[in-house]
Amino acid sequence: MGIPKPKQTKKTQTNQIKMKSIKMKSIRKIKLIDNEIIKFMNENKNERNPYIKASEKINKGFTSKQIRQRWISKLDPLLSHEDLCENEKLYIIEWVEKYKNKHPSNVINWKQLIADLKIKSGKMRSEIKVKNYYYLKERQKKVLPSKVDVSPQDNNVPKSVPSSPQDNNVSTTVSPSSKDYNNNVQERQVSEMMKIRNLIN
């Protein structure tokens, strides 16, 4: 059973409207900046250090590193933004495992993986998409327990489920009141508004 939704007050409704308008303004501003980056990179992509020059020309508070990251992860027209197919997913896992066996330093050459993946599948993928997929699979391996959880004393007997929270030293918590919930929501909304304002300014 979830936490009941609190009744919205006029203040929370006003804050939500303000946040939506701020978000819309920031989205429009980001689209304008993206268009400037695309235009500049298409005209100057063969130059040395185009990201530094783009940062100087655009001059909207973005560093060359931020512009480079935006270009290689989102804006480059060569990138394929569709989901990874099963063959690509398998290739990424196999490639990293082979690479780790050859290079025990635990530093993965992602650029090489992306180049090999492009040759294999014919699609250019962003480094972020490939890394996110690989690390997600790694986390899932570590978190997911086996189907049958056995006790250390007897490998053939499954663990018993505690009948009450006190049997397993599990604390019982009371859900927060709607007033606490409203305060938390308002605090999050204010912090989001501040982040968006900082991004716009």
**Mind telling me the C-alpha Rg?**
25 Å
Principal-axis shape: flat
Main sheet makeup: none
Percentage of residues in helical conformation? 55-70%
Summarize the helix and strand pattern as letters. Answer: HHHHHHH
Number of helices: 7
Beta content: under 5%
Task: Give the overall pLDDT as a whole number.
Answer: 76
How far is the first residue's CA from the last residue's CA? Answer: 42 Å
What would you note in describing this structure?
The chain has 201 residues and is mostly helical. Among the domains are: 14-75, no CATH class; 86-143. It contains 7 helices and no strands. It has helices at residues 10-44, 50-58, 64-75, 86-102, 110-121, 127-143, 178-200. It is flat and about 60 Å long. It starts with 9 loop residues before the first helix and ends with a helix.
Key features of this structure:
62% helix, Homeodomain-like_sf, flat, 7 helices, HTH myb-type domain-containing protein, 201 residues, mainly alpha
Question: TL;DR?
Answer:
The protein has about 200 residues and is mostly helical. The protein has helices spanning about 10-45, 50-60, 65-75, 85-100, 110-120, 125-145, 180-200.
Question: How is this fold's topology laid out?
Answer:
Layout lengths: L9 H35 L5 H9 L5 H12 L10 H17 L7 H12 L5 H17 L34 H23 L1
